[in-house]
Amino acid sequence: MRGIAAYKSSNVQSASPQRIIVMLYQAALLRLTKASDALELGEHEDVLAHSRHVRAIITELRAALDHAVAPELCAHLDRIYGWCTLELSQIERADNNRRTGGTGGTDEGATPTSVKEDVERFAGVYKALEVLLDGWEEVARSGGREAA
Q1: Residues 6 or more apart from 91 whose CB is under 8 A from it?
Q2: Which residues of the chain carry a pLDDT beneath 70?
């Protein structure tokens, strides 16, 4: 196990900033898949853990935005990250409400969401991040010449 951890650590330490961003997106997509699967299986703690991990990754991606270099692009990415974070928070709240017998909604008087609807919301976040991953993979392949 230590060998794997050491390999992963050296892989990150030697990676370019663009490659690290790609790795973050890949980790987020993996966690989104796990969260969605856990939701369908009713594994509430796993939904929360994986979703929170994705939100933490998105927080790191947001913090890495350099608005001085590319203000319009960064503003657009910030809006996408904000939407993703909101979707994940609402899924978490709805799943918690289903687990505890609450309303399932995200706000007072909101219509409760079904597991199917929340799986679709996970899929929407996945698609948004997948599109961004595709772009960053191209940036990483080009050696970062197109990075913001």
Answers
A1: 35, 39, 47, 51, 113, 118, 121, 122
A2: 1-12, 103-111, 144-148
